[in-house]
Amino acid sequence: MSRVLSTEQAKAAIGQVQSIINGGFTDQISALDAQGKILSDPNVWDGPLATQFRGSTWPETKAAQDKARQELEELRTQLQKISQDIFSAGGGA
To answer: Is residue 49 included in any domain, yes or no?
Structure first.
């Protein structure tokens, strides 16, 4: 039989991670995306470094940012399910 333990500290940490994901981190990623789109417009910013930004820097950053957003959402969902399962099994709320 495997051990199942969930303390109030674990419950609080799960809540904090979810709060960070829901309340600010994904908003910051969206804000970063908006600024990257602006800088990707050659009518706003152009030149050799701007071209490099548009051609490689921003697309690579955007892909990493999209992946991070997806993984954070998966983490939030997993934490919610784990939290519910553990606290239901242990009789917690």
So the answer is: yes
